[in-house]
Amino acid sequence: MRVMAQLAMVMNLDKCIGCHTCSVTCKQAWTNRAGTEYVWFNNVETRPGQGYPRRYQDQERWKGGWELNRRGRLTLKAGGRFRKLLTIFANPLMPSIQDYYEPWTYDYDRLFSAPLQDDTPVARPRSLISGKPMKIGWSANWDDDLAGDPSPDPVLRKVSEQVRLEFERAFMFYLPRICEHCLNPSCVASCPSGALYKRSEDGIVLVDQDRCRGWRMCVTGCPYKKVYFNHRTGKAEKCTFCFPRVEVGIPTVCSETCVGRLRYIGLVLYDADRVAEAASVPDERDLYEAQKGVLLDPRDPAVIAAARDSGIPDDWLDAARESPIHRLIFEYGVALPLHPEYRTMPMVWYIPPLSPVVDVLAATGHDGEDAGNLFGAIDALRIPVGYLAELFTAGDPAPVRTVLRRLAAMRSYMRRLNLGQEPDESIARAAGMTGPQVEGMHRLLALAPYAERY
Amino acid sequence: MAGMDGPVSDALLRMGRHLRPGTVSPDLRALYQVGGRQADDFYRDRWSHDKVVRSTHGVNCTGSCSWKVYVKDGIITWEAQQTDYPSVGGDRPEYEPRGCPRGAAFSWYTYSPTRVRYPYARGVLVELYREAKARLGDPVAAWAEITSDPDKRRRYQSVRGKGGLVRITWDEACEIIAAAHVHTIKTYGPDRIAGFSPIPAMSMASHAVGARFISLIGGAMLSFYDWYADLPVASPQVFGDQTDVPESADWWDAAYLMLWGSNVPVTRTPDAHYMAEARYRGQKVVVLAPDYSDAAKFADEWLAPRPGTDGALAMAMGHVILKEFFADRATPAFTEYVKRFTDLPFLVRLRERGGTYVPDTFLTAAELDRPEGAFATVLLDARTGAPAVPNGSLAFRYSERGEGRWNLDLDGVDPLLTVYGGEAVPVALPRFDDGGGVLERGVPVRRVGGHLVTTVYDLLLAQYGVARDGLPGRWPSGYEDAAEPYTPAWQEQITGVPARAAARIAREFAANAEQSGGRSMIIMGAGTNHWFHSDTIYRAMLALTTLTGCQGVNGGGWAHYVGQEKCRPITGWAQLAFGLDWQRPPRQMIGTAYWYLHTCQWRYDTYSADAVSSPLADGAFAGKATADLLAQSARLGWMPSYPTFDRNPLDLADEAGAAGDGPAAYVAGEVAAGRLGFACEDPDAPGNWPRVLTVWRANLLGSSAKGNEYFLRHLLGADSAVRAQEAPPDRRPGDVAWVDEAPRGKLDLLLSLDFRMTSTTLFSDIVLPAATWYEKHDLSSTDMHPFVHAFTPAIDPPWQTRTDFAAFHAIARAFSDLARTHLGTRNDLVALPLLHDTPDELATPHGRVHDWRATGRPPTPGRDFPKVVVVERDYGAVAEKMASLGPLLERLGATTKGLTYDVSGEIDRLARMTGTAPNGRPSLARDRDLCEAILALSGTTNGRLAAQGFATLARRTGTSFDGLADEHRQITFADTQARPVPVITSPEWSGSESGGRRYAPFTINVEHRKPWHTLTGRQHFYLDHHWMHEAGEALPVYRPPLNMTALFGEPPLGEQSEQGVVEGVVVRYLTPHSKWSIHSEYQDNLLMLTLSRGGPTIWMSPADAAKAGIGDNDWVEAVNRNGVVVARAVVSHRMPEGTVYMYHAQERVVDVPKSETSGLRGGIHNSLTRLLVKPTHLIGGYAQLSFAFNYLGPTGNQRDEITVIRRRGQEVDY
Fold first, then answer.
1. Residue B1076: other Cβ atoms inside 10 A
2. Is the C-alpha dihedral spanning B1028, B1031, B1035, B1039 positive or negative?
3. Domain boundary among B478, B508, B525
4. Most CB atoms within 10 A, among A107, A241, B610, B655?
5. Measured between CB atoms, which of B33, B94, B500 is closest to A199?
6. In sequence order, what are the residues at sequence separation of 6 or more whose Cβ sits closer than 8 angstroms to the Cβ of residue A71?
7. Which residue of B6, B99, B501 is in closest CB contact with A257?
C-alpha cells in the first residue's frame, strides 16, 4: 500500500441552478487575458447539449483517455507515447478553435466616437482572433437552457431511443466542469515533454510552464478537454485547483463563489499502487466500484500507519477523516465519478439530479414526498436514468437509481420531521440507510455552512 | 501488475524518468512532482492582491449581495462574494455566498471600452449653446434662445441618438444643465422638471442625492415601482400595503411551495439555494410556468398554463379550497383565521338591478345610525345575531374615539361568516371569460337596519360557484362541469392545465397549510404580475394563501418578488431624498401616467375606456377615453399630476397670494370658473410639456420605456419606428384637448449620468461620467435578506468620473449660482393628491365618486380636488441646503406609513458624528454623512426610534408591541462597512426579526392584532369602490389577456400571414427577465455576451419556427404597430407553441443591425410594447385605494402584446 493524498471535489447537480457564477469568477481570476480568451477552466453545460468544446465526449472522434488493448492492458486511446512522439508535428485529434469557439469583442468605441450620422451607433462584433467583423455562431455555452437542437449530444445519442426532444417531455440539468485532477491522468501520460505532473502532496495536476513545449498532446489526451492551449504563450494551461488558495486554506474560486452551495472539497487517501490495476478492470461498468476501491478508509489503522510512512502529516489525516467527499462517496453513497469509462479515475464527483415527474399534461401524478410513491417515481422522472448512467456509471443504471432513491428517501423522511411527525425508519431502510444517516446526509446536503463544505 | 502498454514506449519512458525532477510511477503512468514550483509562479502572482474592499452593485437588482472587490496596484482586478453574513441560526442554510454571474462580471465595466470616462454632449447643441452664450453673455439667455427658436430646437433634437457626441468639461456641462433648469423654472415652472432614478434600496445615497436636488427645486420625482409594473396593485387593494414579503431564508420554513410565474434560479439567483435545499427538508415544489424554465428543473411538478391565464387556474384552485375546506367540511384553523384577519364576515349591501341583485357597498355604522360613521364596517355576532362594529376599521385609525381601538381584538364578538340558512336572493356577477357575460348565482341574506345584506364570504362562494343547497341561480354540477366558472374543468379549457392536476395541487396546498399551521407559500413573479389585469390574477392567487391562513405566518403566504427591493431604513432615506428636512411637500408623480401623456401614447388609444367595463356597469367609463379618466383622477385629487396646471406654479402662487383668500380656495375657484386648467387636460400644449429630465441609476430608453418608439418620436423628436395610427375622431378624449399635429420633441434637455453607454446615453443631450459601484460610499438593503451593508470605494473614480453625490452637488452649485440672480426666492404652489396613511383616506365615503365637474358643485380641495400648499423656495440656497440637514425634522418629525417619529434626539448625535455645515446644521457634505443620516433617522437601524414608534403605535391600537424593538442598538455606517448588519424590528414594516427570527410579512398584524391599513383593517377580498364595480372587480375574478386584435386590429394570434412566401407567424410576445443581465445592465457585458449568444435573441418553439421558416440563429424581425425588433432566433423545444420570449432589456447598443421594416436601427425589446392604463389603478382618496408614491398608481404593464415574427434577409447591414 502506497498511501497518497488527493484533493477532490463533489458537485451536487441536484442543487445546480445553472447560473455560471463559478465560470465567471474563475475566468475573471484566471483566464481573462490574451491567449486565453476562449479558455474556461470552469464551464457549465446544459444537459442534454453538446458541451464545450462541442461534442468533446465523443471519444470515437477525439480519442481522449485510456482504453484497454487486446491484452487487457491500459493504453492511451490516441496511441501510446511512442506513437505520439512520431506524430508530434501533426495531431489530427485536436479540437479546432471553432470547436471551442472563436472569441470576440465589440466595437464599443463606436458608441462614443460615431460622428453625426443617419443611424443610432452600434457596437458590432469583432473576432478576437482575426480582428475582423464576424457573425457569432458558436460559443462556450451556445446551447444553454436547451437553446437550439441538443440532439448532437454524444451522450444523448447513446440513449436516443429513450428520449424525445419535445415540449411535453422536456428535461434539462446543468453540469459544471473543471479539471478532474485524475488519479490516472491521461494528459500527464500524453505529454512528450514531461511538463504535466501530479503534485505528490495533494494530487493537483499542473502544467510546468517552463517545461511545456506546446506539443498539445495533453489536449488530445484529456477526454474531458480540460487542458487548453494558450495561443499567445504557446503553452498548455489548465485548472490549477486554485492551488495558491488551497495552499493557504481557502477553497477554490469556483467553490467559494458557488451560489447554489453545491460544491464540496475534501481530502481523500488512495493507494497509488492499485490505481493502474483498478483502471484496467475489463468491464467498464465495474470501473465505478474499482475507483471506489482505490480510495482508502482514513479511519482504518492500517491506512493511517501506511499514510504516516508515506510522510502524510497528521493534520492532513484529520482532514481526510473529516472530508465531506469521503462521506458523500462512501457513507451516503450518493456521489458518482464523471465518465469512469475513460479510465482516468477522475476526482471530481457528482450527485445526480432529481427532476420533475413526467406528467405535465397528464391528468395525475406522483407525489414525490409520499413514501408510497417514492420509488415508483424514480423511473417516471423527466431526466432518463439511462442518460445519467451514461454520464456517471458507464451506462449501468443501478447505481444511479440507488442514489436517486436515497435523495427521494431523504425528502420523504425529512418531511415527516418538518411537519412535526414521528420519524419513519422504514423510509430510510427502504433506501438502504438508517434514520440518523439520512439526517446526517440532510445536514451535509442542505445545511452545511462554509466550514463544513470545504 | 497492470501497466503501460508497449515495450518500446516502456523503455523510452524508463529512460526518460531519470532525466526529470519528479517521480514517475512504477507503472510509468504518472509523473509526480515535489518542488520545482517556480514554474507555477505565474499563478501565484496572479492570485496576489493588495487589498480587498467590501462593496455591492447599486441598482435594479434585488440581490443586495455583499462582494469582495480585489485591488492590485491600484487596479480593480476581480470580485468574489463575501461569505460573512451573520448566521441565521444554524437550523437552516446560511446566506453565504450570495451573488450571481452578472455581479461577478461587473468589474469588467471598470476599464471596459464602454465606460463613460468624460462628460459628453451632443455636438450640435454645444455649438448652438456656445454661439448663443458668446453673443448673449448669459447661460440662461442662451438656453432660452436655442430652446425657443423652432429651427435651432429642431436642429439638435432631430439628431438625438445619431452619434455626434463631443467631450466637454464638467464646468461647461454643469453650466448648461443649470441654465436649463433655471430657464425652465422661470419660464414654465419647476413642475416641468423631472427626475427618474429607481430602486433607492440598492444605493440609497446615490438615489437620495439626486432626488434631493430635484425635490428642493420643486421638480417632480417619477415613480418606478408602478411604472415598471412590478407593483402588484393587488397589494394595496388587499393588504393596504405597498408590498411586504418574506426574506428568502423563510422559504426554508415553507412545507409547500408554488413558484408561480417566477423563475427563481434566474431572477433570485443568490437565494435560489434555499428553494433547492428546502426540498431536502421535504418541501414540495410546484412550478407554474409556460416554458420548461430553469425553475421547472427543481419542481416536483410542472404545470404549464397558457400565458396570462394564471388567474383562471387560481380561481379554480380557490373553488376547490372553498368547497373542500369550507363548504363541505369546516376547517377550524382556516375559519378562525378568516374571521379575525379578513373582511369575509363583513356585511355587504345588495342592490336591486334589473330583477335581480348586485353587491353594493359595505354596510357601515353610518347606515345603522351608529356614531362610528361611514368608515366603520359591520358584521354580525354569531352569538347574538346582532350587528357589531368591531375594532380596527378605518373609523378607528384617525379619530379621537378610535384611540386605543384601532386593533383586531374582537372583544368577545364571534364574527358570523355566513348568513346561510334563511332567506336567499339571486345575484348577478360579471364574468369575462368567453367574451363576457353574467353569472346568475344566489346568496343567503339578512335584513339589518332595513338593508338587505349578505357577507363577503357568501358572495365569495357565489362568485367561485361553490353551491349550497337551496340557493337560487345556476351552479356548477361538479368539478367536471366545464361550462360554469370557476371549476377545475372550466379552467382546463382556458389554461391547458388538466382539471384533476389543478384540483389535486389546490387540495395539497390547503391540506399542507392545515397540517403545518399555514406554511404553504406562493412565490409569485413577473410572469403573473406584468399583465394588464395582473391585479385580478394576484387577487385570485392571494385568495389561496389568505383562505388557508398562511399570511402572517413564517413559511407561508405570498412571496412577491418583482423588483420592489425594500429600502429598510426607509424613514431616513425618505427625509433626505425628498428634502423633507427643508421643505414639504415634495412633488411625486406616477410614472406611467407621466409617460402615457407626454409620449403621446394616449393619442394612439383606438379603443374606449369602456372596453374594460363590467357587463353590469352603470356606465362610468362609457364614451370616455382612458386619458379622460386620467384627467378625472387628477382633478378629483386621486392621483398626482405634474405638471399640474396650465400655468407656472410660481406665478400661480403670486396670483393666489394677491387674491388673498388662501391658495387652495383661489385655485379651486379659478379651476371651477374655467380660468385655470389642468395641464393633463391639454398635455400637448407647449406650456405643459416636460422640459428637463434627468436620468441616473437608470436606463429608461433601453429598458423600462414601454412604448419606446413613442418616446423617441414625441418626447425626444428623434427617428422612430411607430407604425400605429392615431385614434379616429370618434375615439378621442372628450376632456383632453386634441391638437391636430402631435408634438415631436417636447423635452428641452435629456441629461443622463452613467458609467456605461446605453440607449439612454446615446439619445441624451448631455452624458455625465458616473463612478461605478466600486468607486463610492453608499448603503444597500433588500427584501431578500434582513441586512444593511455598505459600498466602500475600492479605487477613486477614474478619469473624469464622479459619484452621483459629487455630480449632483456640482450641478446644485452651478444652479444656485445662476438661480441667485435669475430666480431669487419664490413661492411655489404645489398641488397634492389625497394620501394613503393619512386622514385623506376618509375623503370618499363608500367609494362613491363625486365629480364636481359633472355635478357643478364647487370642488373642495382635500376632498374631491387636490390639496394646495404653497412652498417657499430660496433658489440661491439649494446647494447649501443639499449639503446640510434642515430644521423641519425637529419641528415636524419624520412620518412613515402614518406614524410620526420624533427625531430631535438624533440631530445632535448626527452633528457630533458628521460635523456641522457653515449654517450650523449637521453636515451632509460627504456621501458618508448622508449614509450616516439615513441610518440614524430610521427605526430599522436605530433601535431608539423603533421603540419610540412602537410606543406611539400602541397608543393608537391599545395593544402591546413590547419586546419587538431592540431599543439599545444603533447601527452606524462603519458597522455596515465591516459586515452586513441585521436590521432592527420596527413599525416601518409589518414583520419581525426579533430574537433572530426570519422576516415574514404581517406577523406583527397577526401576532399583535395590529390592523392592516385597509377599510376594514383586515385583508380584503371585497373592494366596494364604485369604479371597482364598474370594472366588475369587486370580487376576485378571472380576466383574460387583452385582445389586441379587437382593441387595435392586430392580426389574430396563431395566424400565419402569407404573402407569396411564408411571411411570418403571429405570437404572444413576452419579455421575461434574462439569465444574462439585470434589466439592461450586463446585456452589453462581454462576459455575459460570451456566455449567451452574443447579442439580442428571441426564443421560440420549433413549431412556430417551422411555420415561419426560421432556423436556429437566423436573423428575424418581430413587427407590430408599435415598432420593430431585429434579433436572432433561438429555437428550443423548451418553448411552448404560440409564445416567444425576448428576454427583457436587450437594447440597441450591441450587434443590432438595421431593420428591413423600418430602415432604422432595429429597436429594443420595448419597441413592440406600449402603455395601456387600467382605469381602476387611478382610483384614489378612498381607504387603501389612496395614493402613495410607488405604492399605488397605474402600472406600465406590457405582457398582453402580440407580434408577427418573420425570417428576414440573412445579410444584415449595420
1. 24
2. negative
3. B478
4. A241
5. B33
6. B5
7. B99
CA pair distance B88, B247, nearest whole angstrom: 11
Q: Is A241 helix (H, G, I), strand (E, B) or coil?
A: coil
Whole domain around residue B447: which residue ranges?
343-478
Question: Hey, what's the cell of B598?
Answer: 407626454
**pLDDT tens, residue by residue, A316-335:** 999 999 999 999 999 999 99
Cβ pair A360, B502 in contact under 8 A: no
How do strand B67-72 and strand B51-55 relate by DSSP bridges?
A: antiparallel
**B1145 touches B1124 (CB < 8 A):** no
Mutation for A interface: B64, B166, B300, most A CBs within 10 A: B300
- A-B contacts (CB, under 8 Å): 405
In a domain, B375, yes or no: yes
Q: What is the mean pLDDT of residues B1162-1190?
A: 97
User: Chain A residues with CB inside 8 Å of B1160's CB?
Assistant: 119-120
Q: How far is residue B381's CA from residue B442's CA, in Å, rounded to a whole number?
A: 23
- In angstroms and rounded to an integer, the radius of gyration of the C-alpha atoms of chain B is 30
Query: Nearest by CB to A259, which of B269, B757, B1161?
Result: B269
Check which CATH number belongs to the domain holding B1070 and give it. 2.40.40.20
For CA atoms B1001, B1007, B1009, B1010, the dihedral sign is: negative
Query: Has domain A275-453 been given CATH number 3.40.50.1110?
Result: no
Q: How long, in residues, is chain B?
A: 1214
pLDDT digits (tens, 9 = 90+) for B1030-1078: 999 999 999 999 999 999 999 999 887 655 445 899 999 999 999 999 9
Are the beta carbons of A122 and B1151 separated by less than 8 Å?
Answer: yes
Interface of B with A in 1129-1168 (CB under 8 A): 1130-1137, 1148-1154, 1160-1161
* Least Cα separation, residue B1103 to chain A (angstroms): 10
Are B389 and B419 in the same domain?
A: yes
Interface of B with A in 470-499 (CB under 8 A): 496, 498-499
Q: What is the mean pLDDT of residues B437-461?
A: 97
Contact B101 A20 (CB under 8 A): yes
Closest CA to A15 of A193, A259, A267, A195: A259
Rg (CA), chain A: 23
Grid coordinates in use for B1152? 443590432
Q: Which grid cell is B482?
A: 366545464
Interface test with A, best of B71, B279, B1076 (most A CBs within 10 A): B279
Q: Tell whether B263 and B305 lie within a shared domain.
A: yes
A113-128, pLDDT tens digit by residue?
A: 999 999 999 999 999 9
Angle at A97 between CA A147 and CA A180, to 5 degrees: 75
B352 in any annotated domain: yes
Check whether the bond before B26 is cis (ω within 30° of 0): no
The ipTM estimated for the assembled molecules is 0.96
C-alpha cell at B208: 437620495
Q: How close, in Å, is residue A217 to chain B by CA atoms?
A: 15
CA neighbours closer than 13 Å in the CB half-sphere of residue A115: 0
Assess B10–A contact: CB distance below 8 Å, yes or no. Answer: no
Amino acid identity, residue B743? P
Indicate the average pLDDT of chain B: 95
Q: What is the mean pLDDT of residues B41-54?
A: 94
Residue B802: strand pairing partners? B770
The pLDDT tens digits of the residues spanning B967-1012 come to: 999 999 999 999 999 999 999 999 999 998 999 999 999 999 999 9
What residues in A contact B1149, CB-CB < 8 Å?
111, 122-123
Task: Report DSSP state, residue B1093.
Answer: T
Instruction: Please write the tens of the pLDDT for every residue from B396-415.
Output: 999 999 999 999 999 999 99
Cell for B1002? 404581517
Q: Is the pLDDT of residue B32 over 90?
A: no
Q: Would you kindly state where each structural domain of chain A is located, as residue ranges?
A: 275-453
Count how many domains chain B has. Answer: 5
